[in-house]
Design brief:
Layout: E1 6-9, E2 16-17, H1 21-30, H2 36-41, H3 45-51, H4 57-72, H5 75-79, H6 81-85, E3 89-90, H7 92-101, E4 107-111, H8 117-124, E5 130-133, H9 134-137, H10 144-154, E6 161-165, H11 168-177, E7 180-183, H12 187-196
Parallel strand pairs: 1-4, 1-6, 4-5, 6-7
Antiparallel strand pairs: 2-3
Helix pairs in contact: 3-4
């Protein structure tokens, strides 16, 4: 019998990879120094507010835009389109594994992100049984509350959930809550660990 009843996974670094090509293109168009968008968008406190649902993704992006325009001029506004339309690159190998896993047990995704996660999944054609952006939970990882809320909404006790993440801190936090947590290092190791847990992966 499988050692788990359901699977919970991280999103970025597993099923989607960011190369920041959109941000670099926007910076080039606007004549901004490299790294400017990251500093204004992700290093600013408003991003945390969007990640826990205080701001919507659009409200956060509008705030980023307004601060950039205030500091660098109105030309920046139209140049930001590549940044906003860049939704990362889907990992086709992991998406294929996901479909095989879902033949046997439900899979949820828990990601520190804004409410844009649902539309991003549709954009990439990735399907999960449960979708938990931190913005919908009102708390982000590594808080134990994030894992508890995801497990509760999936209807499974934490100890009956396996969890995979490429961030060691989040793996440690998940183990603290009681999840069977593993550090993600690649698709091959992911499949091997699932087999160890008793989860078959039919072709």
């Amino acid at each position: 019998m499988p050692a788990i009843d359901a699977l919970l996974v991280d999103m970025n670094g597993l099923f989607r990879h960011w190369h920041n090509t959109g941000a670099r293109e926007s910076e080039h168009r606007a004549g901004l120094p490299e790294g400017t968008i990251a500093r204004y968008a992700y290093d600013h406190p408003t991003y945390r507010l969007a990640r826990v649902g205080v701001l919507t993704d659009q409200e956060w992006a509008d705030d980023v835009t307004n601060r950039l325009v205030a500091d660098f001029g109105s030309r920046v506004r139209d140049a930001l389109t590549p940044w906003r339309t860049d939704r990362g690159e889907a990992d086709t190998e992991m998406i294929g594994l996901l479909a095989r896993v879902r033949q046997h047990l439900p899979v949820g995704v828990l990601s520190n992100c804004t409410d844009a996660l649902h539309s991003d999944l549709r954009h990439h054609g990735i399907e999960f049984d449960h979708v938990f952006p931190s913005a919908a939970l009102g708390v982000d990882k590594p808080s134990p509350h994030a894992f508890h809320r995801a497990a509760e909404r999936m209807g499974h006790a934490p100890e009956r959930l396996a969890y995979f993440d490429d961030e060691p801190t989040f793996v440690h936090a998940a183990r603290h809550v009681g999840l069977n947590a593993h550090l993600f290092t690649g698709a091959t190791d992911f499949a091997t660990r699932l087999n160890t847990l008793g989860i078959p992966l039919p072709r």
